[in-house]
Amino acid sequence: MVFHKELIHWYLQNNRSLPWRKTKDPYFIWLSEIMLQQTRVAQGLPYFLRVTEAFPTVFDLAKAEENEVLKLWQGLGYYSRARNLHYTAKHIANELNGVFPDNYKTLLKLKGVGDYTASAIASICYNEPVAVVDGNVYRVLSRYFGIQTPINITKGIKEFKELAQSLIDVKNPGNYNQAIMDFGALHCKPQNPLCDSCMFSESCIAFNSDLVKELPKKEKKLKVKKRFFNYLVVVTDTNETILEERKGKGIWEGLYQFPLIETEKYIDVNELIDLDDFKNLFSKETSIKLFNKKEIIHKLSHQHLYTQFWIVNTSFIKEATTNWKEIKKQPVPVLIDKFLNEFLKLEK
User: Fold this and answer.
1) Is 347 a catalytic residue?
2) Side-chain-side CA neighbours of residue 129 (13 Å)
């Protein structure tokens, strides 16, 4: 049995019909690969369709405002991907005349493009035999070869890349890479893999050693940090509010939010109005009520955000320059978008 031949044979019978599979245009392959990082195809597909409709060429994407890109990206998470996407589009359009690099090493130099994305573009668009290694590939290889090395340490990353490279079909690298990714996504799944109908079952070490549920291995994750967010949702008599851009290199950079006070724990309304940050913002009389009666916990990869939305009614505040009719135009985190959907529904 030849590993790559079996995989490609399976792929030709079982591959998913996806829009980026119908082209070898590097723009569309690049978009799809950036969007699908740490994202399931079912979640990423609608975003791909929206972005390619809005920006059918790399020149269109390059000419867009960052806010437009972030708004279309809203809900997909990991917003640095969107900012890097926009930066790279401008670089390709303005510095490279719209022509993508045609090899792995040069693709790697693009902002936001790592080993996986460069390998995917190079193999699919330019037939360069460089192996992709993503979560699906880690899972297939670790199970089939019974590899115990954790996939999230330097040694494991190097070991799996070398193994993947040794297995690639050098004559048909694009199809092979897509085959092993689809096989991991559809057949050798994280939960309930289809081992009983697998063409590799006789030679799969994990299956024959009862290790399927244990592989791939990962070193323990970092401890999840708890953070307590208090959003001040201003409503003035003239139907205006405060919406400000989130600065810094933390989560949601470049997205918009209501004024935020972060605390060490949950606080009540009396504790809120006693805070200096609150007093500095509101000098006039205000009416305050907590919008969410139930606990809101927004879970990110390494932090959980315990969130309260405080509705602050006031007659006037100079910082309130955003009309509530315009509020949905700005890109905001999913956490705030969900609040807005509920709040605006009740206000109608």
Assistant:
1) no
2) 11
